[in-house]
Design goal:
Largest sheet: 14 strands, antiparallel
Shape: globular
Order of helices and strands: EEEEEEEHEEEEEEHEEEEEH
Helix content: 10-25%
Strand content: 25-35%
């Protein structure tokens, strides 16, 4: 990759022109969140009625695309993601999602504090129907774009591959080759629900909550005080040996409403950022059980935001 994130100063984080409010810690966000664990496996079948208890929160500062903007490529060159803790949003971003080429939707996720700007995850888009975006989790210090295209040519088989995995970083899952790849596919034609399968963590689904679900919104997090206008939820899907679904567990949710969406954006803005709350682990029979990692959640929710922009046209 010829362009590094170190060449993109924070003052130029978007080709739309970020204002200082997007990087400010003085926006009207609430100031704390509750750290807790997910419910036990006994409650899987009724997991949608269980109050979600986030342990980690991030603020995605994506400007998105307004309804009145021209129907041309408006994807941001760089989206900063901040840690959100009890005392508010961090002053500097934790992650950067960087799109090296203006005319391509493909992007990489890097640690904002890493001077080498090593790629932590990569999302690749390819032109044509039946070609969903492919997420690649893992460092790729010695990879070229040609290598990635060769690997992604076989993405149709990714859902059926088994991989023995280990963790070398608290946020990154890897197999023996150091990476994990999987496509994000829509559940059915004209559906906004998207699913993916991680060889380490299992099957997941991103879906938009209905008006009724949003009206009954509850969360143990104190960063949100009112029902959101837009609620995007990630659920882990549990199946039995016959591949029949036996339960779901919410592991993350993107909240966009007053005080949580990216400052300067509106309810009608497509692909705008918000408060990403996560519960990445739970108390299992043999200690803490990891449900999913932060990088996988973040990489996939950014795809959902881009899809909103694509759908708006």
């Amino acid at each position: 990759m010829s362009t590094t994130t170190s060449e993109i100063p924070l003052c130029r984080l978007s080709n739309k022109g970020y204002t200082s409010s997007l990087l400010s810690t003085n926006s009207s966000f609430s100031t704390s969140h509750v750290s807790s664990l997910a419910p036990t496996e006994q409650s899987l079948t009724s997991s949608r009625s269980v109050i979600f208890k986030p342990a980690t929160s991030l603020q995605i500062q994506a400007a998105g695309k307004s309804v009145s903007s021209l129907p041309i490529s408006m994807y941001e060159l760089c989206i900063p993601i901040f840690t959100y803790e009890e005392n508010g949003m961090a002053k500097r971003p934790k992650w950067l999602s960087v799109r090296p080429k203006r005319k391509s939707g493909s992007c990489v996720l890097v640690d904002a504090e890493d001077e080498s700007q090593t790629t932590i995850a990569r999302t690749t888009y390819r032109f044509g129907p039946g070609r969903p975006p492919v997420v690649r989790i893992g460092r790729d210090e010695d990879r070229s774009e040609e290598d990635d295209e060769t690997d992604l040519a076989d993405y149709h088989d990714l859902d059926n591959k088994a991989a023995s995995a280990q963790v070398f970083d608290s946020n990154i899952s890897t197999n023996k080759s150091g990476v994990e790849e999987f496509p994000l596919k829509v559940k059915r034609i004209l559906s906004r629900t998207t699913h993916f399968t991680s060889h380490r963590y299992g099957r997941f689904e991103w879906h938009y909550c209905s008006r009724k679900e949003k009206a009954s919104f509850t969360s143990k997090s104190t960063t949100v005080s009112s029902p959101p206008r837009n609620l995007l939820v990630l659920e882990k899907i549990f199946k039995n040996g016959h591949e029949r679904e036996i339960g779901r567990l919410r592991v993350a949710q993107l909240i966009r409403g007053d005080g949580t969406r990216t400052p300067g954006t509106k309810y009608s803005t497509a692909g705008n950022g918000g408060r990403l709350e996560m519960c990445l682990e739970r108390d299992g029979e043999e200690g803490m059980e990891v449900l999913i990692d932060e990088v996988t959640v973040l990489s996939t929710v950014l795809i959902m935001l881009k899809k909103e922009i694509d759908d708006q046209g």
